[in-house]
Design goal:
The protein is mainly alpha-helical. The protein contains 7 helices and 2 strands, in the order βαααβαααα. α1 crosses α3, α4 packs antiparallel against α5 and α4 packs across α6.
């Protein structure tokens, strides 16, 4: 099984967040494009399993290679935790889209919009901050908690 990387390229993470922001915004402003949330949910799932599985990550990875951009590495476990939160939120949005609960759908899309805007445009990862806070208070006691789970 593929081991989740210890480091990820923060520039690719920012580009992916911008795509997430634009996609989420499009769902809100363009009628009848709710189905896009399902694609975004699948990408979050693939990204959580391993970044190499995500078509969006792969696209920006190839683009970064082609443009010969310098990589900016960040510790991956907090980013993976943030991806898990994104997966949970997009899954909820997908569920509310299927059931027609528009108020809840838009509420959770607004959370995705805020988080992806902060990550994509300001390089501030809310999920990473929550991860670090959870370590500080003892909810998570091992930086490699996600890698250990993948090995079992």
């Amino acid at each position: 099984m593929l081991e989740y990387p210890q480091q990820i390229d923060a520039r690719i993470a920012q580009a992916v967040a911008i795509v997430t922001f634009v996609t989420s915004y499009t769902i809100i402003v363009v009628p009848n494009l709710d189905w896009i949330i399902y694609i975004l949910t699948i990408d979050f799932l693939l990204r959580y399993l391993h970044p190499k599985f995500s078509p969006i990550v792969r696209f920006f990875g190839l683009t970064s290679q082609f443009l010969q951009l310098q990589k900016k590495f960040k510790f991956a476990p907090p980013k993976r935790f943030a991806t898990l939160i994104g997966l949970l939120l997009t899954s909820l949005i997908s569920l509310f889209t299927l059931t027609g609960l528009v108020v809840f759908q838009y509420f959770f899309i607004s959370l995705i919009l805020i988080a992806s805007f902060l990550q994509g445009f300001l390089d501030f990862c809310i999920g990473c901050e929550v991860y670090n806070w959870m370590i500080k208070i003892g909810v998570i006691n091992n930086f490699l908690v996600f890698n250990d789970a993948m090995k079992s």
